[in-house]
Amino acid sequence: MFTDCRGGPVHPHAISQAFERIARRAGVPVIRLHDLRHTHATLLIAAGVPVKVVSERLGHAMPSFTIDTYQHVLPGMQADAARVFLQLVSPDAPVSREKSEKTR
Predict the structure, then answer these.
(1) Under a CB-based contact definition with an 8 Å cutoff, are residues 59 and 53 in contact?
(2) Which residues contact 9 (CB under 8 A, 6 or more apart)?
(3) What angle (nearest 5°) sits at the alpha carbon of residue 97, between those of residues 94 and 101?
(4) What is the rounded distance in angstroms from the CA atom of residue 26 to the CA atom of residue 17?
(5) Tens digits of residue pLDDT in 39-78
(6) Do the Cβ atoms of 27 and 16 come closer than 8 Å?
(7) To the nearest 10°, the Cα dihedral for 30, 36, 40, 45?
(8) How far is CA 72 from CA 20, 54, 64, in A?
(9) Domain map (residue ranges) of the chain
(10) What is the dihedral of CA 43, 65, 51, 72, to 10 degrees?
């Protein structure tokens, strides 16, 4: 997928090392490059993007795999779903804007 300046293959470890150098220079915590993928998925799910969409973005064959992997994000979303449903069936009902502790 990546090539060097002569068109040859780049060893995957070289990409990870470059990412680590960039993170250190930027003064941000150094994490594994693969952790960016998890961060991407977690943030999308927590923001309410449908799991099917997140699953497709990650290239997972089945959304159930995505749900199993990122289920830690889902419990706090239940309260948010309940508030949305309440507003749909009773638009005049008072709504708490507080997010649950699990989604923070």
Answers:
(1) no
(2) 2, 3
(3) 130
(4) 14
(5) 999 999 988 899 999 999 999 999 999 999 988 887 777 7
(6) no
(7) -80
(8) 27, 15, 14
(9) 1-30, 37-103
(10) -50
| CA separation for the pair 81, 79 (Å, rounded) | 5
pTM of the complete model: 0.65
The values of phi and psi at residue 59, to 5°, are: 80, 20
Q: Is 50 exceeded by the pLDDT of residue 104?
A: no
Phi and psi of 16, rounded to 5°? Answer: -65, -40
For residues 24 and 39, what is the distance between their CA atoms, to the nearest angstrom? 18
Cβ-contact 66, 54 below 8 angstroms:
yes
